[in-house]
């Protein structure tokens, strides 16, 4: 395991003080932190995280997947870390060492749990106030419907990622009960995605629509809190991220319901 990738895991002493300080169940005895090696470091981070989530889904609840990358080059480092919750999660995960993950063999090892990952200033995301300035790119969002909603969420995320990967750089796929939202970047990425509307994916005909961000949501976006070194505290960030994700999904569901009501009103008028 390369030294720079686990630098942050050695910064804090291992102790059980977290259980006495009222921390969330991410740090409980029924959870484990593992390291995973064997993947091609030229892969993109997001699809790799999707692959890891699917491969280790049987081990328990995937609480966090951390794939560090080189700060200057942006290339992934050779080891990733996963936090998995559930009884026997560690044993189940270790049993997957040596198994195939989409063309590469996973090497799974135990890894000590730490409260802070310090080797990747991009861990907090590009909106972290102290993070390095991101490339001058704009992120767009599209909505996709028409897919088979009976499929597992992770399978649909992977399928949608592959289906729209030619349109631009995809950094998130959110699958809800009746629609999916894809965040992507790149020249003409939305136009390219709209050209795939009506195309077949696994026997289903997809409907693709652009999504225009609401002005009130854009105004609420502020830089994320960071430490003085520019690195965030994952234990705090993860809780905030989970709440933010839930709120985002709720807002999307409400937007869809409002649009349905408007369509019905137009049909009746």
TrEMBL record:
Residues 257-269 have a biased composition (Basic and acidic residues). Pfam families: Nup35_RRM_2. Residues 249-269 are annotated as: Disordered. The keyword RNA-binding applies. The keyword Ribonucleoprotein does not apply. InterPro entries: RRM_dom. Residues 32-113 form the RRM domain. This is RNA-binding domain superfamily.
């Amino acid at each position: 395991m390369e030294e720079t990738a686990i630098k942050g895991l050695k910064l804090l002493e291992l102790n059980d003080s977290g259980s006495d300080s009222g921390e969330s169940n991410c740090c409980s005895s029924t959870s484990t932190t593992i390291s995973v090696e064997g993947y091609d470091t030229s892969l993109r981070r997001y699809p790799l995280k999707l692959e890891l989530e699917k491969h280790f889904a049987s081990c328990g609840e995937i609480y966090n997947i951390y794939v560090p990358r080189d700060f200057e080059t942006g290339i992934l480092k050779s080891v990733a870390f996963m936090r998995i919750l559930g009884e026997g999660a560690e044993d189940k995960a270790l049993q997957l060492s040596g198994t195939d993950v989409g063309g590469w063999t996973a090497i799974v090892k135990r890894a000590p749990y730490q409260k802070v990952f310090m080797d990747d200033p991009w861990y907090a995301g590009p909106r972290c106030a102290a993070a390095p300035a991101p490339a001058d790119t704009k992120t767009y969002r599209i909505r996709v419907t028409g897919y088979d909603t009976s499929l597992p969420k992770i399978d649909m995320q992977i399928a949608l990622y592959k289906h729209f990967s030619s349109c631009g750089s995809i950094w998130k796929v959110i699958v809800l009960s009746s629609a999916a939202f894809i965040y992507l970047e790149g020249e003409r990425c939305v136009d390219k995605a709209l050209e795939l509307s009506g195309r077949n994916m696994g026997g289903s005909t997809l409907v693709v629509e652009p999504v225009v961000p609401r002005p009130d949501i854009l105004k609420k976006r502020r830089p994320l809190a960071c430490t003085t070194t520019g690195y965030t505290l994952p234990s705090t960030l993860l809780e905030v991220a989970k709440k933010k994700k839930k709120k985002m999904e709720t807002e999307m569901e409400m937007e869809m319901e409002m649009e349905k009501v408007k369509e019905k009103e137009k049909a009746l008028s």
